[in-house]
Amino acid sequence: MTTQLLDIPIKATVLLASAGIADALLWRRGSAAARHLVWSIAVAALLVLPVASSALPQWTVRIPIAPAAVAAPATDGVSRLGSGPSSPVTAIACNDPGLKACATTTDVAPPAANDVSGVMPLTLFAALVAVYAAGLILLLVRLIVEPVALRRLTRASRNMTDQAWRARLDEAAVESGVTTPVRLLQSAREVMPLTFGTLAPTIVLPASADEWPDDRRRAVLLHELAHVARRDCLVQRLTALVCAIYWPHPGVWWAARRLRAERELACDDRVLAAGAGAREYAGHLLELAHSLGSAPAPATTLSIARARQLESRLLAVLDAARNRAALHTRGRAIALAIAIAVLIPLAALRAAVVPRGIPTSERLARGSAAALSTQSADLSGTWELRLSRGQGVVHVTVRTDHGSHGRTVRLDQLPGVTAAQISASSSTIRIPIRREAGTFNVEGVCHRGVCAGTYTFEPSQTFASQLAARGLANPTPQEQMELALADTGIAFLDTLAANGYARPDLPGVIRATRHGIDTGYVRDMASLGYRVGTVDDLVRLRDHGVDPDYVRGMAAGGFRDLSVTDLVRARDHGVDPAYVNGMRDLGYRISDLASLVSTRDHGVDPVYVRGMQERGYRLDLEDMTRMRDHGVDPEFVNGLATLGYDGLTVDALLRARDHGVDPHYVREMAELGYKGVTLDALIRMRDHGIDAAYVRRVQQRGLSHLSVDEMIERRDRGMDDPDAAARAVVSQVESLWHSIVIWLRS
User: Residue 197 sits in which domain range?
Assistant: First the structure.
């Protein structure tokens, strides 16, 4: 029950932590719009999480605990199972919903459905539910009542029909990309400029708005329309709903604060991108905060300036190096795909509490030592079997107290189990599976391609003596079961000896089985000339993914008789048979492994080479590597070609890329009248700090036909550069801000 109560909060914490990590990664290089999208997706995921957790198929992670934590001991001195130790009741653990079972135990009964004893007292549980419900209702009522305050504000305001205001609103709507009709109201009292409404967006201005200069009118409208274009009102309402649902979780309130901060910064970036001067815009924010900071406003409205956020916003507005890029559809799609990839497995995850085998000392204390042996306590667990895609192949997973063991085996290695039996709607399995180290007594049921159940292991009495004859210590029953799970026996030791391997000790044999080294692996590697001397060397090869198929593939590609070190190095660097053959098919016949590894490390792979060749660049490996190192890829080349810069030399491509002249920059400059200029001219403009925002500012002053040289000269002289002026008054703005803070606190 505890895991059920904590399931959603724990998943919510994981989601919020993931969003926080993404936010931290985007803090320096990412834009405010990107960080706001991260938190918006996190809020939406929190809203979907409870529904997805209920609707998606379960992916269960079992948490073994002592049986006393799952069921209270019997009070009458008799086992609660009622059948005694000679007739144990067996439950089955599986992931398939058609198998109605959950765990394996031989002397513990599951608690009743309404039994919360030993987990949480019923009165405490009821009190917690009551507190949560009270908080939820209070916040939901506030959310429902909020529109009443908005209607009161609307009734106390009038429609602004002034032609100058309407013209400025229409102009700002075009610049902001807003096509939805927006209602513009003027309040009868002094209020902070604000926006509300998702389907019918409304902007409310203070009574003194008519006295504003034209540049402030434009800045305020651009900021408020940015909220409309970005659907911030909808995100705000959803965030308020999520805060109500998860109100005890402090991380949700922190996420809401981060969302509000990045929302305002993203809108500020839009205003600056539309050509507003940074210094002038910062002055407008300061003036609005100073004159209207104490004006009340409904909590769910979006105000242009809040005193608590003003300092960080002013610093951001005046920061010339800040990334102010808006998100494009592709970026949003990628972020959404990543979020779905995180949300689905997280929502499907379940934590299932299962009982462990009871230690011998506890069994003795319960008076059951005569009926239950040490082996039955330590050598039992659950298993699961699923049909694989390969004909006659199944995947088997065995779970013990110490972990899980999974492997794919042929069906004929499981005597008594048939494909028809596994695929049946309901069938029962009771078979012994014999290995050299011992026998697994398996019981379970099958349901439409999935079987699951319990097992007990009986160690072989002769196996230990056979190991002793080969100089190995006697294994414990647990070690013997582990060897049996890997089907490792005397044949494995004999194969090692026949191929010249130093005799391993028992821990070495166990280690080899855990790393997937069996008789077939040793024999196949030896046939390929790799008798590496010790089991530890075999483990190293296996851990790095070097198997017989990899060795054969590399040999077929011309790399024969590689040393163990070279095999491991090639595998670690991603040089596999597919890479070798792909490069050869494209005309690169590299016989030196070091060169091939270096090429792979630089990111030159068949996909990259093929893309460059399709665009006419059939280059040697040196030039191909240079292009890759400088970030010249097929997408970059194709983007320039579609804009009229086709057939460029390698050096021209490298110069353009190194100087930041990419398709986005070229497209922006072409839209501003610099279409068809030479690539060298664009590089010169970029080097002198001329970007789209600067060109827009110049053109807004009526200078729309300047040549490249004239634009560069103007930039070099510091004209039309608000950042230069802003840097000169940063100290003055900071001083003014501190004065405002003192005034607000007084």
Answer: 128-327
